[in-house]
Queue: 4 jobs
Job 1
Amino acid sequence: MKRKKVILPILFSALFVALVSIFLPIHKVFTFTEYRTDHPKTYYIKMADEQEFQIRYVHSIFLTDVVESYRVTHQNTIQSLSMQYEDVGIGLPGFAEEGESLSVKNGMYTLTYEHNIIPSFVLFIGDVNADLAFRYKGHEVDLKNYLTRGKSYTFRVQRQSFYQLMKGVNMNG
């Protein structure tokens, strides 16, 4: 009888700890969630301690690399840091707006943002054979290997539970 009194609370405690560890959103991840669909699928890349990341793509007209740099804030929002590119034109500005600065060095334009913080952004996956990559901690993930061309995805930084991660698609490789 005494044995049951000891084992039962231990079992309930273990079950409680297991449930909390499965459903508590403790894993910080970059997420790409299908946009404008009834059954959105989420793709994710696990975050480590590094707060900066980049998105690299080939401009559809100039066919040159564009690199957008970002930082994750303490509130899990996204701070735009800069955009680097070789050509000026469609989508690639030749001058700075208020709160921005533009410099040119060795033929490379760098547009720097002073204080541009957003909670998320929508990323369209074009149906062209041009690079679209996510860079984090020295690794590059080809987004077109995971995300569907012609669809849009909401990108954000979130904390997710183990259960949510199991329902999503891990893009860490």
Job 2
Amino acid sequence: MNLEHSFDILAEPDVAFAYLMDVNRVAACVPGVSLQEELGENTYRGTLKVKVGPVTVKYGGIARIISADPVTRVAAIEAEGEESGAAGSVRAKATMSVAATATGSRVTVSTDLALTGRVATMGKGVIEQVGNRMVAQTSERIEQAILESVASSPAVDVAGPPASARDGSALRLMPLLGSLIADWVRRTFGKIFGARASRTTPGERK
């Protein structure tokens, strides 16, 4: 079964891709996912609890990042799990890409999904609805987390703002610098002239 999902994020593509490669932070944004252990070599153990139609299932398994290219902003992920208390299983291979848009980034995820057990009998339409709901909730949480991260740590965007933004910031900064310099001049030279005046004798004053 092939599934396609995409969502937009109000963040620079490199920032979005870097965040999406942080499995611990992304897992916290996915409804029903609990990350239990990092096994090394980009491999993680966790659980997924999800409601599909009238059935709630819980899978326990392993996910691994098999490739990630920060230049093209493309990554491939594999996951496999077994249903708790039943004979179902899930296998998935997903390719994720991040592209620039006029307002930030668009994340596209293409998933090759194989299911067995109760969920497999419900059909692609039901599974797509569940996937769309999870992607919508996850994308909102990821976007909010990225915006909060960037707001608290502007240095996350290592490339820095565009030249136009830097020029605008510099223009806004000039009056402040001028005010600080003028204040320093008044305080420094005011002290010097004040000290000279205090050393001048009454007879020398005009």
Job 3
Amino acid sequence: MASAGGPLYEAWVKGDPTNKVLGDCPFCHRVLLTLEEKELPYRKEYVDFAAKPEWLFSVNKNGSVPVVKDLSTENWLVDSAGICDAVEAAHPEHKLGSSDSIPDVAGSLFPAFKAFLQSPGPDEDARRSAAYVQQLRQIQDYLRTNSKGPYLGGQEPAAADLSLSPKLYHTTVALKHFKGFETPSELAEVPAYLSRMQGRKSWKNTFYSEDQVIAGWAAH
């Protein structure tokens, strides 16, 4: 059981357990941002993807992270969306919304990014980059026409922002490095939005470098 004043959750995420360095997983990042934005005390533990512990597969048969232990119940939570929904339900005082309340903004960002990243050559690059740019355009259009503030959630980040921004960070960094891609100038509100998210305390407390992102996607 969690002791008074102690952590409420134990979050197992991608990283270096020896040096206590956070890894580059956007799904882990989403969960950590949620805990940070809700200002919930938690303990961060790290899983080396090259040497996953056996117990992880008993908690999550896929052996994937994040997984989070609720220290008040000793129950394990799996899957980033499920974890965030459970945390939201248990702690509604700082409302972020649930995964089913997330507006469908750039829902195909990651598939479009992966297709562009894995493009076989210049002839295919143009088509795949256009599909990715369309996802960026959806983000900008939503910020301009549907959001009531600088974030998808309005004046403060909501679950939508905490899901989207780590993915946007990965796609921006990886495509610049591997494809020389820069966000078109007419979509300047998108990098400005990401910069706002990166300026938040929650992001600074869950930081991992661009070099880590690049190394993580090098195999792809």
Job 4
Amino acid sequence: MARPPGGLPTRARTRNALHEEPERLDSVTKPEVAKLQDYLRRKFANASIRIVAMKNGDSAEVFIGDESIGVISDDKEDGDDSFMFRMAILDIDLEDDA
């Protein structure tokens, strides 16, 4: 089979394309990260809040300074676009502040 300019034969390219991961509908984009970071900084009056998108693109990590405090993920349901912020608070974290 002849190799087209793309490298793989046409059938192989088609077969590989069928096995590629579909585009995620629940990804956190760079503009959303910027808006979320601005929102959280204003809401909590804390300019050291920083949001970093994760490599998989479906969520972003929230930091205060160098400490990770939680994860934000995009939640698209029924045409609505919202974000879920999850923050785990361990019992040992509560003891440190006592």
